[in-house]
Amino acid sequence: MAPGFVPPVPTVSRKATMTSTDAAPAAIAPAPPVLAEVVRSGFTEGHHRGSLVLLAADGSVERTLGDPGAPVFPRSSNKPMQAAAILRAGLELSGERLALAAASHSGEPFHLDLVRKMLAEHGLTPDDLQTPPDLPLDPVAAETYLAAGNVRERITMNCSGKHAAMLAVCVRNGWDTASYLDPAHPSSGWSARSWPRRRASRSRRSAPTAAGPR
What we know:
By secondary structure, the chain is an alpha+beta fold. Helices cover about 30% and strands about 10% of the residues. Strands 1-2 form a two-stranded antiparallel ribbon. Strands 3-4 form a two-stranded antiparallel sheet. A hairpin with a 2-residue loop joins strand 1 and strand 2. The longest helix is centred in the C-terminal third of the chain and has 14 residues.
């Protein structure tokens, strides 16, 4: 062998080494469409992507963007449907009480006062709530709340209005209040029946959230 000679490195083709267990590269899903832009001083500095579906009053689909059938965590957007279930289960709610049951609140004093009142009207107290302890959602309300020496409580969590209504409907119907978050509880059954009948089957997946029964 001549001095300085370097033998060539043998090459092996990919085709020769591929086995039956090798998987083909997964296809990359297309990015969801841009639904909104964040514009500052005429400059677009951010995009919000997602999917949407617009329904007519009769439940028919008028327009879709992206994949509206994809599973999501609906979070507090479930509240109006849960409030509808509470009404159908026999609890009389209207005005500010219905508004508090159907939405998140910011934890201001008048919100907390109404939650306490709704609970007291049915022989309940904030101790019956099973929301996770939290601070008021509104930053100013949270600062004021902490400055007064308060700590995280169940009633200051932004879902406590809905939970107060859920507990109230339990009392109204003679249902157990200690297990109202159990998926097998009657209140959860009413909530499930309030979902639109036209929802896609794969969108029925659910998972526990701080907001209570799904």
